[in-house]
Each structure stands twice: as C-alpha cells, then as structure tokens.
Amino acid sequence: MMSVVGAQPFIKPMQPSPSVSPGIQRRHTLPASEVRPLNTQDAISVFEIEREAFISVSGECPLHLDEVRHFLTLCPELSMGWFEEGRLVAFIIGSLWDQDRLTTDALTLHKPCGSTVHIHVLAVHRTFRQQGKGPILMWRYLQYLRCLPNVRRAVLMCEDFLIPFYRKSGFKVLGRCAITVANLTFTEMWYPISGHAYMRRNSEAIRFPQHPLTLPLTKTDEHVDV
Prior knowledge:
Helix content: 10-25%
Strand content: 15-25%
Shape: globular
CATH superfamily of one domain: Gcn5-related N-acetyltransferase (GNAT)
Radius of gyration: 18 Å
Distance between the termini: 7 Å
Number of helices: 6
Strand order of the largest sheet: 1-2-3-4-5-7-6
Oligomer: single chain
Order of helices and strands: EHHEEEHEHEEHH
Number of strands: 7
CATH architecture of one domain: 3-Layer(aba) Sandwich
C-alpha cells in the first residue's frame, strides 16, 4: 500500500491551531485524523479489529492479544495506528528481525540488532474498508522506516490472494514461506528500504520514535485507492 514518494517530508508536526474567540467553541477537541505509534493501551482495540478481519477469512489471527501487548511493549516505534476522532480505524505492527528469511521464531521475537522489519499485521476496521486506508497507511509506514538508520528492508508473509495487494505497495515475492499456521501456507514478500539521506535532511520532522506526533492527513492521501 504507493511507490511514489512525495517531495514534502513524510512526517510533520501539526501546525498550531488558530486562536478561537471566547464566543466560538470547537465541536470536537480530537483531531479529525491522526497517525501515531501504538501503545499497550491500544492493544484491545487492535485485537478487536484484527480478530474481526482475520478470523472470518482464515480462521487465525496473526497476533493474539498477549502477542500484541508483547510487541507494543518491546518495540512500539515499529507500530503505526490511524485514528479518526480518537477511534482506531487501521494499524500496522512490526518488529525487527536479523535473518534473510522468516522462521517460526520471527512470529514472537524482536531482534533489536536486526536490519529487517517484519510486518506482522496490517488490518483496517470493517466500517472503514474500501476507502484506501490500508494502502495509505502502508505507504506512510514504509516511508517512516526510512527514518531508521539501521533498517534496510521490510518483509511480510501473506496468503496468495493478498500478493497483488502488496505488490501495489512495491513488495516483491521472495518465495514460499517456511512458516505454516494450521493448514495455512504463506508467501514471503520483501520491500527495500532506502532514502535515508533524504530523511536525514528533514531530521526536524522525523522524531516519531522519541516524540510521537500527530500526522495530519493530506488531500493527496484521501485520493489514493486500494
């Protein structure tokens, strides 16, 4: 999920809100849309979206609730959530891996010295599907990974019917995955992470891991199709 990188920095702080006169009150205090890293307080919302998205299709969840909490504790900076007026509508959870191909250990381990980001799950709330949110969030996530100086690629495993979806995001097929879950088999895909120099030139706008920022969605984002 947008292989073309815009000329503007990927992550920007929100602009200060204009002052509001005492006689005019804002109807909502939460931003209409924001993208931020997840934390353990988001775990239940994450799992509810994931369970609905995957159980009905494959009968298995990529991550169980305790595993969601596990990764959001160890590496929250490798997660990303899209919120609409404070409600989680889409998310990605990743961790670091240190081998060329995924093994069963990659399902539960975070390798801090690894240079590969293993994307465990991307899911969108059912009422927000078919709006381009999945591809937009993946695009933002992949561009964010360019901020991380030691990351060289992203990998994921998916069922075959999802291969065209991830190809549209720039992923390439590595081959059959060594991991199986119950009777499910998977294809392993990868995406090269480059462009570190560009992101360093915009270092004032990429403090995402240390200082979570609200990321305003642009008009361009709203017109990207699934």
